[in-house]
Specification:
The protein has about 280 residues and is an alpha+beta fold. It is about 30% helix and about 20% strand.
Length: about 280
């Protein structure tokens, strides 16, 4: 199970003083938000390979790139507030790192992500966490709850990706429906490409809790929530549940409107979708 702190590192966009810690070889390869998390993965790990980057794309590229035999087994990381034990990390030959930049605390901190594998279109590459494809989804609705509400959905697979999707939500125009339907569309796209493992990043805890927890009790209680009444988005959750059948999906929550690249991109796609004519 991927930790939220690690995922936030994957999503964080280059804010001032914010870096991406990539761990290509360690206890749990990937991208991390802090040096402390990164250190846990590489400290005393044989031939650990890690590095700090200013951009998300560079960090993921490093994690997914196979090091050549001529490369150092331990890649240097820069860091702020370098701690005393950082300088003690050693490479495979037992030599201590001798020049860590002092401008930021740096250390191996990335979970393994491959960004070089593609499916039908060699020009469109997917981002990976382990062997699962990463996608970001979002929904929005201007005038939510009002008669003239306009809702849109966004699905983001990567910068300039041909699968990036921006659509006007059909039917009832609400923010919650847009969030659920955005996830549905991402899974539909994945299935069309025979992608079986998916990591879905969304800022909607309603969607995550609905499909992973609440739906079980809803079905047992005849689609009635514990507070009474009926489940407003029953049809949408039924669609989502059906689509997840046969899929290996990891649902990951990320704070909305917090500057995280993938989430911001999905949000912009959803906003563009909301401006389109009704389906």
């Amino acid at each position: 199970m991927w930790r939220l702190s690690s995922l936030i590192a994957v999503l964080s966009v280059g804010m001032k003083g914010r870096f991406y810690y990539a761990v290509r070889k360690g206890r749990s390869p990937g991208v991390y938000a802090t040096w402390d998390e990164c250190k846990e993965q590489v400290d005393k790990f044989p031939c650990a390979s890690f590095k700090k980057f200013a951009t998300e794309e560079d960090a993921w590229s490093f994690v997914g790139t196979v090091a050549s035999s001529s490369q150092s087994a331990l890649t240097e990381c820069r860091g702020q507030s370098k701690s005393a034990d950082e300088s003690k990390l050693q490479n495979c030959s037992g030599e201590k790192r001798s020049h860590i930049s002092s401008d930021a605390d740096d250390e191996p901190c990335t979970k393994r992500l491959r960004s070089t594998k593609s499916f039908s279109d060699p020009e469109q590459k997917f981002t990976y966490m382990g062997d699962a494809v990463v996608v970001y989804t979002d929904g929005c609705c201007s005038g939510n709850g009002q008669s003239r509400a306009r809702a849109g959905i966004g699905v983001y697979w990567g910068f300039g990706h041909s699968l990036n999707l921006s659509e006007r939500l059909s039917g009832r125009q609400t923010n919650q429906r847009a969030e659920i339907v955005a996830a549905c569309r991402a899974i539909e796209q994945a299935k069309e490409l025979n992608i079986e493992k998916l990591v879905i990043f969304t800022d909607s805890m309603f969607t995550i809790n609905g499909i992973t927890k609440w739906i079980k009790s809803w079905k047992i209680n005849g689609w009635k929530p514990s507070a009474g009444g009926s489940v407003t988005n029953k049809e949408d959750f039924e669609r989502l549940e059906e689509l997840t059948t046969g899929m290996n999906i990891e649902w990951m929550h990320v704070p909305g409107h917090a500057g995280f690249t993938g989430n911001e991109a999905a949000d912009n796609l959803a906003k563009d979708g909301a401006s389109k004519p009704p389906c």
